[in-house]
Every structure is written in structure tokens, then in C-alpha cells.
Description:
It is built from 19 helices and 23 strands. By secondary structure, it is α/β, with parallel strands linked by helices. It has an 8-stranded parallel barrel with strand order 1-2-3-12-13-14-15-16, surrounded by 7 helices. It has a 6-stranded mixed sheet with strand order 6-5-9-8-7-11, with helices on one face. A hairpin with a 2-residue loop joins strand 22 (580-581) and strand 23. 46% of the residues are buried.
Amino acid sequence: MKLSIALLAALSCFQSSESFVPQGMSTVTSRTETALKVATDWDTQNGARSINSYFGAPKPEPTVAAVPKVAQRWRKSTKQLVTLGPASSSREMIEKLFLAGADLFRLNFSHGSKEQKKELLMTIREIEEKYAHPIGILGDLQGPKLRVGEFSSPTGELLQKGQRFRLDLDSAMGDNTRVQLPHPEIIKASEVGHTLLVDDGKVRLRVTGKGESHLDCIVEVPGKISNRKGVNTPDSILKISPLTPKDRSDLDYMLEIGVDWIALSFVQRPEDIEEIRSIIDSKIPQGNFKPCVMAKIEKPSCFDGDNLERLVNLCDGIMVARGDLGVECPPEDVPILQKTIIDECRKQGRPVVVATQMLESMIENPTPTRAEASDVATAIYDGADCIMLSAESAAGAYPEEAVAMQQRIINRVESDPHYRSYLDANTNEPDKTPTDAMIVAARQIARTINAKAIVCFSLRGSTVHRASKNRPTVPIMALCPFKETARQLVLSWGVYPDLPKAGSYGYTVNEEEMFDYGSPMKESATDDLDLVLRNACRAALKKGLVSDPDDLLVVTAGLPFGTPGAANLLRIVPAAGPTCWNGVCRVD
Length: 588
């Protein structure tokens, strides 16, 4: 006999205290009691038919519902990337940040030891297992740091507007007329008329002459220059690798501990992405899981010619790193460049993160400025997949409040009718492929029948990315056989991956084992489509995306199962299961 998915879901969703339980709810331990509570809950909501009435069972007394009340964090489409640091390194705080809305965590390899990063990663993995929901981890490489040398005066020198100043390779201590610039590549790449920015643009120099070992400059924006201050070169493309020896060591360590995303700093041209990919390919055998590569767009050269289009094509994701981008580009250009990057990423179906100074004042204050709230909202309206917190969560006094504030802004913007109109106005033409045709059809069907979610079965995430690119009006449930894929997909707009047992869609896994996360096992694929569809219904119930047995899901999959990129099956399935329609369940 084939049972309704509601009872099966109830038995599997809450089998241990490690299932996700929204705040204010207790965990139910009795599996039989849980099933009855699910049935009662569905029976009492809006006069819906009960699961018990499907099978003729007596109606139990009303009790507390075991179906999770839908937490808003599972309804938002825009994701949140949160940087960990001294203010957020404890297990308690990381768990609070996850519950407040964090979908991914950023490990900044510019600070701290490798061992600390590994401890943070292990803590995140433990929280992931506790709540049975995938959490992405991004490792951020530091990149080259271009700096001036040191001065004789420990307090540095005050440069006046219009004065001459030289940058050279001489290691002697600097004074009011010169200082060492220990980067011959900058001297070689700079031309007369080029601008050099010192200390994040606080001092601006213009090149008036050059030699093999020096640059003669004139001070255009005066200010104080002191030891080891950074230098930006907005007009020059430096012939240096974005990977320093430290970065290469950190990259090896990231591959060893298993981060899901790697962010590359100081990207100037597409060849930089090819370089890091070749290193990753040489370290990880073909066929094994590799971390996704994210390019941080922070240099003006990324916009030369077709560089941006090529960079987006070569990467798995893009970060709008507005800190350095705002130094090297005029401030009035940054909002336009942000929109340009987001539009290109949406066109190519790549997830894009908007980062830096989003809620900067919350480093010290419990609430943001209105301008900061507007800045976050603008990134969401622009169509970003994800927004990021940096120092606000890593070193601020209010990390949990900052994450919660971002989620509040996300919820408010996404409930605004203007938001949907903006998304629909920027819809891109689908590719002329069977997969894209299926995804477009699924989006339209979901809107027409008011489905609760689109469920995508995907091996490595390509079908899910196409679904996210189309920005459907309902959540996208991603069912993947690999945890690595699920973790990488949490970055994408509107996507909520399930965390199944490794190597299985649940084809031959019984209901009690499907969510036994502590004992992963690889299952061989079968053609039991009915069981696969029931697993889809159960996953939607587990996330709280359905609450009534007659709620509808639009399911896409590819046959034969396990074929990468194949999407050739489209089904409409009631939440009660594929064999239940209009209150009647087929019994074999």
C-alpha cells in the first residue's frame, strides 16, 4: 500500500532534536504522535481535508502542530553572506547568526591563523548537521598588497598640494620629497598622466615623469602619508599574479579543509581566473568536487572591452567589492557599475554578491542609518543574489542585530510590488535548450496554478541555476544527491537546497533513512519516479513550504536520473503525494 506523503513526512521530518525547529516550538519525539499532529494541523487549517479522512482513520484531539510554522528566513529569495571574526567566532554566536538569516559564512584569510579557520569551518558543519540545512562556506584570499615603504619620521610626512614627490626603488627611509615604492611592476606599468592613490585615496598623486627605477609625481590631493600605506593604481594593469605566495598556501589549505567557494582578490583580467582554475584542477583529480570560484570585481580594468563579460563567463560567481572599487573609480560611478555587474551576471545566470559597507554604522550602533538601509534595499532591487556583511559581523558590537536587520530589509523589499515588477522587467531571453524550455514552462505553470514551490532535481546544480536565473515567483527547492552541490547552491537567488544523504536522491531510501544525516551512504539510482516525487513532497513539508495536502508543487527532473544538465520531466504534484488528488489517494 502506498501511504500519503503527509504521514511519511511527519515520520521523517522530526525524527530527532536535530531537525530545524523555529524559535518558540518544541521538538516532538514520538513519531506516531507527530504523524497525528501533522494530520490534525492540516485538517484544521482553512477547512482543509485531513490526512485522516483520506484513510478513514478517527480524528484525534487537536494538538500543537508538528508541521513547522513557516519562518520568514525560509521565504526570502535574496541570500545573506556573513563574515566571521573576533566578534562572531564562538559556536553560540555562529548559531545565532544562522538562525537570524545567514545562508553562507565568509572566512577572511587576510586575518587570523589557518587553524582558526578550520575550527570555524568545523563549527559551521556541526550547525549544518544540527539543523539539517546546508550552509555555504566562502574562503576569501587576501591578494597582493601594494604599499609604500617607511619614513624617517614615525608619524610620516604631510604633503602639500602642487608639491613634487618621488616614488622609487631605493630602500632608504623616506622624507618629504620621496619614499620607497617596492613594486617595480607599478613603475613599469605607470605612464605620464596616470593617477596613483595612497591610503585609500586620501592622497592622490599624478605621474609627471618616470625612469627605470622611479616615478616623479605631483600632489593633486594633499594629505598625510605614513609607513606602509596602501597604493592603488586605477589607470594601470599590473603584470602580476593575483596570487601571492601566501595566497597559494592559503588556497592549498582551503582545498584541504573543503570550503565551498573561493573568492579571488585583485582580479584585473580574465587570465587571472584561468590561473586559479588551473591550480585547482592540478590539485583535485578530475571527477571530484571542486570549490566554486568567485571573482571580486574591484579594479577598473575589469570593465575594459569585453573583460566583464568574459570574467562572468569564466567564474561560478561574482562579488561587487565596493571598497577598493570605490577607491579606484569615481564614487558617482560605483552605483552604475554595480548595476552593470548585476545585469551581466543575471544575463549569464551567475550568482552575484554585493559587498562592503552595507551597514557600516552597525559596527558601533544597534541600528543603521537610513542611507545604509536604502543602500541595502537598492542592491536587492537591482536583483543581487546575495548581500554581504563584513566588519559589521566580524568585529562589530552588534553582529546578530546586523544580520537580522539585513533580513528585515530583504523581507520588506521583496514584499513590495515594485520589486517583482523590476525583476520581470529585466527578464532575459532563455537559451535555446530543452532544459531552459522546461524551466520557463515550470515558472509559468507555477504562477498560473499558484504553486507553493518549484522542485528541481539536480546533480551538480546546472538546472537549479537556470531556474534561479528566471527569478520565479515561488521558492526553488533543490534536491541534490551531494552535500557539496547543496552547499554551493545556497548562494543562488530563491534557492533552498535540501540536505539529503550523500550520493542519493532517495530513490531506494526508505522514509526513516532519507533524513538520517549522521549516516551518509551512496545509493544506486533506480527508476522509482513515484518514490522520488514523494521525497520532493516530504522535503517541501520539511522546509515549511507547504501546509495543506492540496498545495501544489511543480517538479522538474531529468531521465534517466543522474544525467548532468538533463531536464526533460515536468510534473505537478500535490503536497500529499503524487498519488493523491482532490482528497482521493490511490491505494494499490
